[in-house]
Amino acid sequence: TKSVTGAAGSESPAGYTFYLSLNKDGSSPIATAVSDQNGTIHFKDISCATLFGTNKKEGPVQSTIYLVEKPGNVTGMHYDTSARKIDLVAMRTRSRDNSVSTDGGTSTVTTYILTDTLQTATVDKVSASVKNNIVTLSGDANFTNKMEYGILEVTKRVAGPVLSGDPMAFSFTVTLSAPSGKTANWANVTVNGATNVQNDGNGTVRFSLTAGATATITGIPAGVQYSVTEDADNRYNTTWQAPSGTIGADTTASVTYTNTRKTTELTVKKTVTVGANSDPTSAPAADKRYTIKVQ
Prior knowledge:
2% of the residues lie in helices and 51% in strands. The chain has one helix spanning 48-52, and strands at residues 2-6, 9-11, 19-23, 29-34, 59-70, 77-78, 84-102, 107-123, 126-127, 129-131, 134-136, 143-147, 149-159, 169-177, 190-192, 195-199, 204-210, 214-221, 225-230, 236-241, 244-246, 252-261. The protein has a 6-stranded antiparallel sheet. A 5-stranded mixed sheet has the order 15-18-13-22-20, with no helix packed on it.
């Protein structure tokens, strides 16, 4: 049986596919198998001759085989590649099948059926279950892979004055991708601390942040590459820190976007002119103050 552990403990193996092989004497595999949705691997229809040879003598026969997992290409997965040594002991019996006469009856060829019945199986010197010629591994003889995850935090900062009509929230897109030649499982990717979250389940997440807020994205497989972008707003000058990178195992990557409100200067000059035919004494005092409203 194949199992997977991760940041939250045991994970369902249903989202993964595992490849194992049985090897004998360091040669090419004598059988291969792929895990099912429950993480169980079945090796079926392995011939007795392949395991125990073709010696026609009756009695106990022995075989040593090695169970090995082939590393896959899932990002963040640490594969259990240590070989399990399996020692098998079977009892070989022989029964007469048929006799055929040749050359006019001068010669007789007799065929026999050899039957091997498994007696015991040990995996790395620990007994395994044997029933109806089926060996079932248990405990440490099974394979456990470990999934490693990291966290991505995206923080929004706003500097400068807040003017009427300015946005209250800002939109972000996070793109996650597996390294070249690898795959990634996005089923555990979760966003907290943001609004309007949209997760397409294929490594792209959109959300909104208000000034000072931080989105925390968990369940990202270690080794995944990330890129964070903010929807452009020409009312701001935007700067950023570490908008792209690679997620590390059990670590947090941080991205900060800062918007600074664009401003300009407005100079207002007040000029008072006294007409040529006006009474000079009617001119306002030099220190008179005027109220000017700018909208």
